[in-house]
Amino acid sequence: MLLVTTLAMLLCSIDRQILPTVLPDIMKDYKLNSVEAGFLNSLNFVGSFIGAILVGVLADSLGGGYRRAWSWMGTCIITAVAGIATFFSRGIGGLQFWRFIMGFGTGAMEPVNVALVSDFWHKENRGFAIGTHHTGLPIGQFVGPVLIGAILAVGTWRTTFLWIPIIGIIIMLLQVFVGTKKNEQRVYNWINQRNLTLPRDTNITVTKNPFKNAFEAIKNRNVMLGMSINFLFLWTEMGAATFLTLQLTSNVGLSLAHAAVISGSSGITGWIGQIVWGTVSDHLGRKFSLSILAVGSAVSVLGCIFIHSATFAWVILIIWGIFRNSPYPVVFSLAVDSSKKSAGAGLGILIGVSLGLSGALVTPVAGYFIEHFGWTWNYIMLSAFSFLALIPIYLIRETAGEKASMKAE
Predict the structure, then answer these.
(1) Are the CB atoms for 221 and 335 separated by under 8 Å?
(2) Mean pLDDT, the chain, as a whole number?
């Protein structure tokens, strides 16, 4: 299950890399400026906003564990179909529509994906499991642009979207054999034999009413604070990532294929940060990890101001990779720890609102800053949002580590 969900995150990551990577070519084809290109990218996240909340809440009603694999399969089908349709679409209207549908599919997949890997892993190492499965994001951020760059050398930007159905079909076939009731029971037996904590309290009755599940998540303090933290980290990340290839082609003078490869270099170190900070949060607490990551993210994004050559780009982006995706598994672990009755709804609302709003708003705002104030002020603005995350981080209630254990005792 860890392998399947990691590959699903790889799919989401590559999808979110495709548009920023090929954005210079799309802007040329449709004669778009930076602000218009930012709005095009926003449609993907508007879809994610709706998909994550709707499917995340409904997924709890269908049931956890192996039953959650059914709703997961539905999200995967949507993303595969959208990838194929994008390849065949012509005209800006078709591209806009299918970017929205793709966002709906990947946005819906992410909370279900996190809940699913949590359902198949003991609580003591939840941060490690979610962190490991989330390595699909940084791996995709590096591998994706490399694959896209190879396709661009022989094909067009539309061809790059075919990676989504290819990966989607593979993981759906794997899930048919993995996400079964028999395998779930094998996991639970293994956990019980070692006197560890089951991922779900079997004594708690989960309501089938999606509105009650949603309300249960909304009134949870940590889920709401986690949503704020996620929003601020995502604003910084996506605001920087969306225009990286544009910066490398227009300011540094690289070819699109070369810029595509460098833009994904943060993935070289990103997977390390995912596993390390997720595991550290299990032992030293979610607050501790998130505080370090907020400062690291802000400082490393400020470093992007100094990207004036390919060499500097490699160095700065590799450093950024240690912090870029690392906060999300810690925030998701916090949400799962805190919402025992409605993990899917909690994650759906947390991811849907933070991902949807930040993705929809930051790209036109960053595009406006680049157009009117330049790259330096854009990165200063983006860095400030990571520093702001320290406020909700301070307010969360700890759910892991020694402090949480002492409180429980």
Answers:
(1) no
(2) 82
The amino acid occupying position 75 is: T
At 52 the pLDDT is: 80
What residue has token string 């760059």? 149
Give dist(CA 21, CA 247) in Å, integer.
Answer: 11
- Give the HSE-up count for residue 310: Cα atoms under 13 Å, Cβ half-sphere: 11
Query: Which tens digit of pLDDT belongs to each residue from 80-118?
Result: 998 898 888 888 888 889 889 988 988 888 888 888 888
Distances (CA, A) of 249 to 124, 267, 310: 46, 20, 10
DSSP state of 123: G
CA-closest candidate to residue 167, choices 146, 140, 207, 134: 140
pLDDT at 46 over 90: no
The C-alpha angle with vertex 140 and arms to 306 and 233, in degrees rounded to 5, equals 55
* Among candidate residues 261, 367, 374, 264, the one with its CA nearest the CA of residue 40: 367
Burial class (CB in 10 A: 0-12, 13-18, 19+), 323: buried
Exposure string over 290-315, b if 16+ CB within 10 A, otherwise e: bebbbebbbebbbbbbebeeeeebee
HSE on the CB side for 48, CA within 13 Å?
28
Cβ neighbours of residue 81 under 8 Å, at least 6 residues apart? 101, 165
Q: How far is CA 228 from CA 221, 299, 331, 336, in A?
A: 11, 20, 10, 16
Distance, CA of 274 to CA of 266 (rounded, Å): 12
Q: Has residue 370 got a pLDDT over 80? A: yes
Give the span between the Cα atoms of 82 and 80, in whole angstroms. Answer: 5
CATH class of 2-189+209-401: mainly alpha
